[in-house]
Amino acid sequence: MDHSSYVARRGEIEHYFDRTAAKAWEVLTSNAPVGRIRATVRAGRDRMRGTLLSWLPENMEGLRLLDAGCGTGALASEAMRRGAHVVAIDLSPTLVDLAQQRHIKELHQDPTLGARGGRIEFSAGDMLADDLGSFDHVVCMDSLIHYDTPDIVKAVNRLSLRTRSSITFTFAPHTPWLGMMHSVGRLFPRSDRSPSLQPVLKWDLKWGFRSTLATTGWQAGRSQRISSGFYTSHAWEWTRT
């Protein structure tokens, strides 16, 4: 997608998660003890991941799934258990390496992990790359929350061209709480900031899809907001009719 704001934002996100926050992310996505604030984020992410997985088929044998923004690979691992061929991609090579290490450890601990024919193909790069091929299902869990409405719309539209059944993505909902946190974040030194969330309105997203997804055989499906302390994210499913 040749869109300057998306490319610039992608670079900021890659730098942050690969160089600044990789160690913190490793701890957050493990069972290691964390502080109260991070515990709420961990719990919220666990609930969100469970929600997104519940929207996927229980039997995914023969299906191809794009885990766009796979992080340390938890969702990809569960989809593999269901028999899916998962392409797990993330901007951060460091996180992808960690995901691969955890996957190898899981395979050693549980030889039945791939009993239904599932497998995971890990990759570091842009989730929108055309050379990743086509998919039955796409999941973007918290990988679009740093982008504004136009870039989210363009990203989902691009993914829809290579997706047969469903696309599920999350966005940062526009709430007074997130608006305040967004403002507070600007008080920190730039070197210490994570890429800020971009709170968006669901109506604006739907309006953005009116001449694309809504006219090319896609319809809005399930929708769920997860709030857990310092974690707030909204999941939205689109299915091909």
Describe it for me?
Helices cover 40% and strands 22% of the residues. It has 8 helices and 7 strands, in the order H-H-H-E-H-E-H-E-E-H-E-H-H-E-E. Helix 5 links the parallel strand 2 and strand 3. The chain is of the alpha/beta class and 241 residues long. The relative contact order is 0.16. The chain has a single domain (4-240), classed as Rossmann fold. The model is unreliable at 184-192 (pLDDT under 50). The longest helix has 19 residues, at 36-54. The two termini are 25 Å apart.
List keywords for this structure.
241 residues, seven-stranded mixed β-sheet, Rossmann fold, globular, 8 helices, alpha/beta
Overall CATH class: Alpha Beta
Q: How can the largest sheet be summarized?
A: 7 strands, mixed
Unreliable stretches (pLDDT < 50, length at least 5) are: 184-192
* Global outline: globular
Number of strands: 7
The domain tally reads: 1
The CATH topology name reads: Rossmann fold
Query: Distance N terminus to C terminus?
Result: 25 Å
Give the overall pLDDT as a whole number: 90
- Tally of helical segments: 8
What kind of assembly state do the chains in view correspond to?
Answer: single chain
CATH fourth-tier homologous superfamily: Vaccinia Virus protein VP39
